[in-house]
Amino acid sequence: MKSLHIGIAGAGPAGLAAALYLSRAGHHVEILERYERPAPVGSGLLMQPTGLTVLDDLGLFERVRALGSRIERLHGADARSGRTVLDVRYDAAPGGRYGLAVQRAALFDTLHDAVLVAGIPIRTGLPLAGTAATGSGVALIAATGDQVGVYDLVVDTSGARSPLIGGSAVAPKVRDLSYGAFWATLDGGAARYDRTALSQRYDRAKVMIGVLPAGRAKPGEAERVAFSGA
Ligand SMILES: Cc1cc2nc3c(=O)[nH]c(=O)nc-3n(C[C@H](O)[C@H](O)[C@H](O)COP(=O)(O)OP(=O)(O)OC[C@H]3O[C@@H](n4cnc5c(N)ncnc54)[C@H](O)[C@@H]3O)c2cc1C
Q: Ligand 1 centre and the CA of 51: distance in Å?
């Protein structure tokens, strides 16, 4: 394939990882981000073996592994009776697989640093509002109405509610939900929780809370826990 000029909308984990792969494949890539400074969003997340394989392929696994918490099991119980409702163990399948819980900052910083080292430009402070077909490719249009670049290909990693969806050939359907979620990154301190599991408690199917040991944001920092509720 000839080398393409590719614009990536959004500097989250997906945009940064896509930029690394496309750049390594020989394409000329730039990332466009709405925030003035790219930064991690949210608390902790649990990376599954597929995501860990991608990090390994990018040569970034060791740095993230050293910061994260190895997760062996997903365990959920009814909050009133204590009855186990969910019990999924990674070692139920062969292959020595496991999950890795990380603070988003640890994942973001690792990918972001790799993008900087690769010399991939990130243009910030550019909230994108749409696309337009031009004679020479696809133009990205900023919220100001200005055309900010023309590309052979646009990769949209800005989220399900992206304003670029109208220009996509494979637009996903977005469903509004009648419930919300909150989460916080806390000091686990002396609290008693399973340090190798994502632990959840359910009040029927209506309320869920969970505790995820989320490792460190940076080397030398204290380990934290991600607490979530929905
Ligand atoms: C409570 C909660 C818990 C979650 N837990 C997990 C988990 O355990 N495991 C997991 O894998 N996932 C989890 N997720 C999902 C998680 O959000 C995604 O996995 C991850 O953030 C997706 O990365 P992304 O790069 O696709 O999107 P994002 O991280 O959302 O990045 C999108 C980027 O695009 C930028 N952007 C958005 N709109 C525009 C625009 N118009 N113009 C320019 N830039 C724009 C944003 O500023 C952002 O930098 C969770 C989400 C929530 C809310």
A: 14
Residue 37: pLDDT band (50, 70, 90) is: confident
Ligand 1, atom 16, lies closest to the CA of 45
Q: CA–CA separation, 202 vs 75, rounded Å?
A: 11
Domain range for 216 = 5-229
The pair of three-digit structure tokens given for residue 184, joined into one six-digit string: 């916080």
Domains of the chain: total:
1
The CATH number of the domain where 150 resides is what? 3.50.50.60
DSSP-derived secondary structure letter, 171: P
Predicted pLDDT of residue 189 = 78
Q: What is the pLDDT of residues 88-124, one digit of tens each?
A: 999 998 889 999 999 999 999 999 999 999 999 999 9
